[in-house]
Design goal:
The chain is built from 17 helices and 13 strands. It has 468 residues and is an alpha/beta fold. It folds into 2 domains: 152 residues, Alpha-Beta Complex (Aspartate Aminotransferase, domain 1); 259 residues, Aspartate Aminotransferase, domain 2. It has a 7-stranded mixed β-sheet, with helices on both faces. β3, α7 and β4 form a beta-alpha-beta unit. The N and C termini lie far apart (88 Å).
Length: 468
């Protein structure tokens, strides 16, 4: 009685990434009401600078647009609005995007399409750029939600670009070419490449070399490139963030066909810590893509009140400058806090410079160097330790033993508790492993029967007699 879409199992909800969330929701940690509950470390949410936003709102009570003193009245905001979006908000948003990029590049509001979050932006671009059965290449590891966002309703396919820990999971020319050839073998038409810069889950920004490599690759193959830059404002240490737009500008490609093949996804969910506001955007130099995406955006609009409020916040340049500086400072401090605690427990991390998480190497804790061993460890950490972290296999990592651990969605005190739990678990696991090895090594050999010694004496006597 239901449609194939309603009954299919391709949403990806059965991934360990989402299952961990479900277990957390059954038993969420609370310092008073449920101190033994599961601590959520699988949610890439930025709560660290939230007080800055609350302070601004307290100082600007008219920003909601619901008061007599505001520039807009309630009636103007409540009634129907064009799905192209409020011009004031689009202008404020592109200016904020430029500010994050140190004004090395500028953005045209007319090339911006507003969407209900980055999820909607990525799916809309898939509808614009690919037909069902067409493929996009994605470097691994990648955000688990892409299996849902890019594939579920569009019918598009994902072909992984396998990256390795041997070079810090950096994109290489050979990996790009291998993925492209793999798609050809599967009779898939490759329409483009999608990257997250900075990377989720790696917490690293793409290098200039990687970005130039990508531009050269899509140019030679005549492909699209989607650069998901929703973490662009979270880069807290060197190397700094380089947008794909900066590469196009430096290579004098802004007015070429290559520029029309490059599209940016942005959101205020991570940089401004407002995922509940559902503010996403597509930026494209291709007028046809902008037109088509604008029409599709009518299925997922941002409320006029939200746009009005945020246009007030983002237009306050004194606030945005202070916010971006303080946000990076707090992220750096929290990142160092997490990694020092992990290092003390004997766990190393990939060197990161951005994001709301660390990419953590727990291979030494696996019972076996397999993905089965990884899942066994993940279940222990969720159910026994009480931490929801994301296993690398949910991010399509090609090497078992890596985990994404989020640090910005909780208080400092909760993070300290989480690290205490994990340290105790690591100590206990290492102690058991060492004890098991000791027991194996200290086992006394069984007594040999007397006939063995008799045979040994007989063999030695014959050897001496024969002069061997």
């Amino acid at each position: 009685m239901l449609s194939a879409m309603a009954t299919c199992n391709s949403h990806g909800q059965d991934s360990s990434y989402f299952l961990g969330w479900e277990e957390y929701e059954k038993n969420p940690y609370h310092p008073i009401n449920n101190p033994n509950g599961i601590i959520q470390m699988g949610l890439a949410e930025n709560q660290l600078p939230f007080d800055l936003l609350e302070s601004w709102l307290n100082n600007n009570p008219n920003a909601s647009g619901f008061t007599a003193q505001s520039n807009f009245g309630f009636k103007e905001i409540a009634l129907f609005q064009d799905y192209h979006g409020l011009p004031a908000f689009k202008k404020a948003l592109v200016d904020f995007m430029s500010e994050i990029r140190e004004n090395k590049v500028t953005f045209n509001p007319n090339n911006l399409v507003l969407t209900a979050g980055a999820t909607s932006a990525n799916e809309t671009l898939m509808f614009c750029l690919a037909d069902p059965g067409d493929a996009f290449l994605l470097p691994t590891p990648y955000y688990p939600g892409f299996d849902r966002d890019l594939k579920w309703r569009t019918g598009a396919e994902i072909v992984p670009i396998h990256c390795s820990s041997s070079n810090g999971f950096r994109i290489t020319e050979s990996a790009l070419e291998d993925a492209y050839q793999q798609a050809q073998k599967q009779n898939l038409k490759v329409k483009g490449v999608l990257v997250t810069n900075p990377s989720n889950p790696l917490g690293t920004s793409l290098s200039m070399h990687e970005l130039e490599l990508l531009v050269n690759f899509i140019s030679s193959k005549n492909l699209h490139l989607i650069s998901d830059e929703i973490y662009s404002g979270t880069v807290f240490t060197s190397p700094g963030f380089v947008s794909i737009m900066e590469v196009l500008k430096n290579k004098n490609l802004m007015n070429t066909d290559v520029a029309k093949q490059v599209h940016i996804v942005y959101s205020l969910s991570k940089d401004l810590g407002l995922p509940g506001f559902r503010i996403g955007a597509i930026y494209s130099n291709d007028d046809i893509v902008v037109s088509a995406a604008t029409k599709m955006s009518s299925f997922g609009l941002i409320s006029s009140q939200t746009q009005y409020l945020l246009s007030q916040i983002l237009s306050d340049k004194k606030f945005t400058k202070n916010y971006l500086t303080e946000n990076r400072k707090r992220l750096k401090q929290r990142h160092e806090m997490l990694e020092k605690a992990l290092q003390k427990a004997g766990i190393r991390c990939l060197k990161g410079n951005a994001g709301l998480f660390s990419w953590v190497d727990m291979k030494r804790l696996l019972s076996a160097q397999t993905f089965k061993g990884e899942m066994e460890l993940w279940k222990k950490i969720v159910y026994e330790v009480g931490l929801n972290i994301s296993p690398g296999s949910s991010c399509h990592c090609s090497e078992p033993g890596w985990f994404r651990v989020c640090f910005a969605n909780m208080s400092k005190e909760t993070l300290v508790l989480a690290m205490q739990r994990l340290t105790s678990f690591v100590d206990s696991t290492v102690k058991k492993t060492n004890q098991s090895r000791h027991n194996r090594n200290s086992r006394k050999p069984k007594s040999l029967p007397k006939w063995v010694f008799s045979l040994s004496s007989f063999t030695t006597a014959r050897s001496v007699k024969n002069g061997a």
